[in-house]
Amino acid sequence: MVTINNLGVEFSARPLFSDVSFVVNKNDRIALVGKNGAGKSTLLKILAGMQSPTTGQIAVPNDVTIGYLPQEMKTSDDTTLINETRKAFSDHISRQHELDHLNADLAARTDYDSEDYARLIEKISFLSERIAMESSDNMEAEMERTLTGLGFKRSDFDRPTSEFSGGWRMRIELAKLLLKRPDLLLLDEPTNHLDIESIQWLEQFLAGKSNAVLLVSHDRAFLDNVTNRTIEINCGHIYDYKVNYSKFVELRKERVEQQMRAYENQQKQIADIQAFIERFRYQATKAVQVQSRIKQLEKIVPIEVDEVDNSRLRLKFPPAPRSGDFPLILENVGKAYGDHQVFDHAEFTIRRGEKVAFVGKNGEGKSTLVKCIMGEIPFTGHLKIGHNVKIGYFAQNQAQLLDGEISVFDTIDHVATGDIRLKIRDLLGAFMFGRDDVDKKVKVLSGGEKTRLAMLKLLLEPMNLLILDEPTNHLDMRTKDILKDAIKSFEGTVIVVSHDRDFLDGLVEKVYEFGGGKVRENLGGIYEFLRSKRIAELSELEKRPVATSTAQPRQEPNPQASAPTADNSATSAAPALSYAEQKERDKIIRKAERAVKQAEEKITQLEAEIAEMEAKIAAGECGQDFLANYAATQDNLQTAMTQWEEASEEAERLKLS
C-alpha cells in the first residue's frame, strides 16, 4: 500500500538513519520502536508529508489517504466540540455535494453516445463507490460513540473547544482522525493524552475498526494489545519483525546475542591479524604475507552490535531522610471550580514507605489533588503534611517547563549547588547526555531527552515524599524500566499519577480511584484494581452509581493471585467472550456477591444479638434456657462465618476466572 525506498535523514551532516526500506500493507498494525532520539517521530513526519528526507523516496498511491496525530500540535478554537468533530466528515460531505451536482448534470444530458457522457458516468460511479465505502449508518451516532469512548461527556458536546486543556484538544484531533478512517493512521504517542479506560477503548477500536496503523508508543501493554508487527530503529538502521512487541523483545535478545558472538569472533580475528603484522613487519621474508594481512584488515567491515548502551543511565534517588509515620493525611478534602465540584469528602492516610497510584479518567481530579498537596491551589477540608516531610515533585508538564533557549549544561548548572557543580558533566553523562549533547540547546532535544533532563533536576535535592505526575510520558521502554527500578528501591513514600498499566504493575500496592466526585481506596496492585472493574462494557462504569464511601472495605490481597505481566494483562488474560456469555458471567458474579452481602448481614445481626445476651449475662439476668439459647446463637454465628468465607472465596474465584 505504502512503499518506503532507501530513506535517509541527516541533521548537520550527521546521519539519523539511512537505507530504510519497508512496505506498509493493508491492515498492518505496526509498532515503531527505538530509543529516544532514534528518529521515530521524524519518520512519521516524513510519511505524513510534513518533512522531506535527505535521500530516498516514499511511494503512496493516489487513492490512499493518510492521517497523522503528532505529539504536539496547534488546534483551532473557533467552534464547539461537536462542530469541530463534525469537520472529520468535511471531505465526505464535499464528495456528496459533487455527486449531487454531477447527477443533476447527467439528468440534463442527451448525448448518450459521446465520450464526455461516458466519462461522466465513470466519474459518478467512482464517487458513488467511494461514498458508499466511507458512509456510516449514522454520523452523529458515530461521533458520539467516538467522543464518549475517548472520555468526553455528552454535556461537553456544546462547549467551546477553547475551554478544553491541551490534552483534551489532542483527544479532539484524535477523534477526528479516527472518524475519517484513513487508509494509514500515523499516531505519535497517542496514549500520553489518555486515561486507562480511554486507552482500553482505543485498543479495541484500533484492533477492530481501523485500517493500517503505524504508531509510536512507550506503553508496552497498549502495543501488545494493538500491534501485529514491530519495526525497530537502531543505530541508524531498521529491523522488521512480524510479531507484537513482547515477542519482538525475545527475538531482539536472540539477535543481539548472535551479533555479540559475531563481534567477538571478528575482534579476535582482527587482533590475530594485527599481532601477525606487528610480529613480522620488519622481516623481509614475510613482507608479502604482511602486506596481504594489511589488505585483509582494510577489507574487514566492522560488525555493529545493536544493543542500546543504557549502562550509563544510573538512576538512583538520594537517600530519603526519615519522615513521620504518616507523611500525608486527608480529612474531608474537596475542590471545586465555581459550580463544578471536582471531588469532595476525600479522606485517606498514606503511611511512610507506601507506594500508591492515583488513577481515573482525565478531569476527575488526580492532578488537582496533587496541586492541593503542593499548596498550589486552595481547597476545603484539612490536609496535613507529616513531620519532617520533604517533597520532590515532578509535574505533568515538567519537561515543557525547561528553558529551551539555554544549553543542557546550563540547565543543571543553574540549580546545582556546592560540590555538585564540579560534577555536572559526570551527572549528565550518567543520564546519557554525551560530550556533544551537553552543549545542545534544550529546545532541540526529543521529548524523552527533555524528560530525562527534568528528572535529573529533581534528583539534585534529597526528599522522602516523591510525587510523580505522568513521569513516563515520552520515555522509551528501557528508561521507563530503569525509572521503575529506581522508584522500587526508593526508601521514602511515593505517589504516582499514571495511566501506564505496565509501569504501575509491581510498583504500587494501593490504588486510589478518582471518579464521580469521589476518591476511593483500593488495596492491591493495578491489575487487581482492573480485575475488580471488569464488566461487560467499560462504558458501564459511568452508568453505575458511585459509592458514597470514600474507601472500599479493606480486603487483604490474595497472595496466590499475583498480578499478570504485560504478556498476561487483565485485557488479554481472559478468553474472549461473546456479549451473551459476558452478561451471563456477570449475572453469576452478582449472585455470588449478593450471597457474600447476605452472609455479612447475618453475621452483623448475630453479633448484635450475642452482644445483648452477654450484657444480660454480665448483669446476672439469665437462666438455664437463656444460656442454652446463647450457646445456640454462638453456633449460628460460627456457621454464618463459614458461609461468608465460602461465599467470599467463590466470588473471588469467579472474578479471577
Describe what this molecule looks like in 3D.
The protein contains 21 helices and 18 strands. The longest helix has 40 residues, at 579-618. Mean pLDDT is 80; it is low at 535-575. Helix 3 (90-108) packs antiparallel against helix 4 and helix 20 runs antiparallel to helix 21 (624-656). By secondary structure, the protein is of the alpha/beta class. Helices cover 44% and strands 18% of the residues. Strand 10 (328-337) and strand 11 form a beta hairpin. The protein starts with a strand and ends with a helix. It has helices at residues 40-47, 81-86, 90-108, 115-134, 139-149, 166-180, 196-208, 220-226, 245-280, 287-299, 366-373, 408-413, 424-430, 447-459, 477-489, 501-504, 526-532, 540-543, 570-573, 579-618, 624-656; strands spanning 2-11, 14-24, 29-33, 55-59, 66-69, 184-188, 212-216, 229-234, 237-241, 328-337, 340-350, 355-360, 380-385, 391-394, 465-469, 493-497, 510-515, 518-523.
List the keywords:
globular; 657 residues; six-stranded mixed beta sheet; alpha/beta
